[in-house]
Amino acid sequence: MQVVRGADGQTQTYSADPVQMAILWRGENAKTLHVVDMDGVAEGTVKHRDIIRRMVQTVDIPIQMSGGLRSFEEVERIFELGVYRVVIGTASVEQPDLMKRLIHRFGARKIAIGIDAWKGKMLIKHRTVEAPMTPLEHSLAMKKLGVSRILFSQRGEDGETHILDYETLKELGTKTNVRITAWGGVHNYQDLIRLQELEKYGIDSVVIGKPLYQNAFPCQGLWRINEQQLQDLGPTRRS
Fold first, then answer.
1. What confidence tens digit (pLDDT) does each residue in 19-28 have?
2. What radius of gyration, in Å, describes the C-alpha atoms of the chain?
3. In this predicted model, what pLDDT tens digit does every residue of 76-96 receive, in sequence order?
4. How far apart are CA 234 and CA 56, in angstroms?
5. Phi, psi dihedral angles at 5 (to 5 degrees)
6. 48 lies in a domain?
7. How far apart are CA 169 and CA 154, in angstroms?
8. What is the pTM of this model?
9. Which of 6, 16, 92, 129 gets the highest tally of CB atoms within 10 A of its CB?
10. CA pseudo-torsion sign 67, 63, 25, 199
11. CA–CA distance from 25 to each of 15, 69, 81 (Å)?
12. pLDDT tens digits, 9-62
């Protein structure tokens, strides 16, 4: 279960069921869902295909997925479930030929790369291995293969906390000329406003997780009040 602050300052419990949470975020006007198979990240293979399938069948918005995608066949199976886009991290470093094959088969809009950065380094394999190139070097190499979107995550000094590294985001955007999604690091409305200043450099979107559960944005107070009156979250599911 996920416990967060309610509109009145009291705590509120959310379901631990990913499908129910997909319905909730859709009801709060989410346009895209980013889903990470965390067990897949740790084990190097997708572990929760059935949950992803049910999420795709449940909500009527695109779902982007990452975690455990290390082979062509695994990616193909995920697309067969109806996932809109996949994000490849470790395999993009270790298997550049795989990236070329995926882009050729599914198109650049369906294949993005994920970069997990820390102290100027790029980490792979669940952040246990340092990649032999910098985030910028990898981004440029992937661009040559046809990659058109990067999800960039910057870790703080502790190696765990996500931060917004505006200068690195700007550098990646200007030197690669590909679309960039900031992955984590937005904690409040002010962060969103500042991040918006980078849109002219190609940073056009952001993945937000924990702050949404913590009701960090003013509009969520209205959503909490609305949810208290509903038995069902409404027509957010596919027919």
1. 988 998 888 8
2. 18
3. 999 999 999 999 999 999 999
4. 17
5. -75, 135
6. yes
7. 9
8. 0.85
9. 92
10. positive
11. 12, 25, 20
12. 455 555 678 998 899 888 888 889 999 999 988 888 999 999 999 999 999 999
Q: How many structural domains comprise the chain?
A: 1
- Specify if 56 maps to a domain: yes
Chain CA centroid to CA 146, Å: 20
Asked if 22 and 62 touch (Cβ cutoff 8 Å), the reply is no
Q: What is the CATH number of the domain that holds 51?
A: 3.20.20.70
Question: Is 233 within a domain?
Answer: no
